[in-house]
Here is the input.
Amino acid sequence: MSRVVVGLSGGVDSSVTAALLKEEGHEVIGLGMRLYDNPVPDSRSCCSPDDLFDARYVADLLDIPYYTLDFREVFRSAVMEPWAAGYRQGLTPNPCIACNGTVKFQALAARADLLQCDFLATGHFARVEEVDGRHRLGRARHRAKDQSYFLYPVPADRLARFLLPLGNWTKEEVRARASTLGLPTAKKRESQDACFVTPREPHEVVAEISGEPVVPGAIVTKGGERLGTHKGFEAYTIGQRKGLGLAGGPWFVTDLRPETNEVVVQKQQQRTLQRLRIDDAFWHIEPQEMAVSVRTRSGAEPVPARLLPQGDGGLVVAFEDPVSAPAPGQVAVAYDGDWIVCGGPIRWLPGA
Here is the structure.
């Protein structure tokens, strides 16, 4: 059988992934990642010392070798610092996707290659299958836990060596199997937040990483009427309704203006748009104009749209109907049926 590296995070999903692969007869090696210093205890994030302890315990129970890799430097330079810089520009980057694209599928994959492994496996709920002669990355069978949105940066040429054993499983089935195997992670709560942020507020972490304080400023309407004071525009994101401290609402954040340190709001409804731009699209097939469905948030269902490649290398996404405006810096992922076509960070178009 094959030699397989499993990204063993200390959660139930990666634990069961390792167990399933060993049951199939593979030679399994667990790799954990130390990503950052001074994690806050008891947070709903991943990669804490407790998680790494759980990963080693699971590896011992499964009788597989386990190693912890020190990726703090690459994680800070490739994930944390770009994330903080994005917030300073009024964007809302997704650090988990950046981590997948750089740390897991570059640095971790490189370690798997050094160990002469045939495959890299993770506990994500998504699928890799051969479609029309090429390996494609697609949605999990059970949509409620589908995590393909977070995996779009996986290089297409890596997919043939990428295993996702949980692509056809439900979360309940995973926990049941972990319980049957006696794994300590069977009832462990899920990690759902950015590991280096939770439970602090994003603007606090931005200030810490950048070394510059956030500065209070004005909350204004689109027309310039001042309604209140914000605690730093980095503390807000497009579409936010709670925590604005404004009377007579509901009010929604519709724009961030770093150049004037203003948070722009409008009353009663969120901002919508019908077109957006991706400057640096990551394609899984040859770039082309085509009808697709597009997901602009991790928990949202894909909606009909058309991809319009631009002469400058960018991509315009034209939706059939207006959608609630996603925050610039977040990610749009396009699907053809179940299979990922492309994805990338969102930019707004003037007048969209």
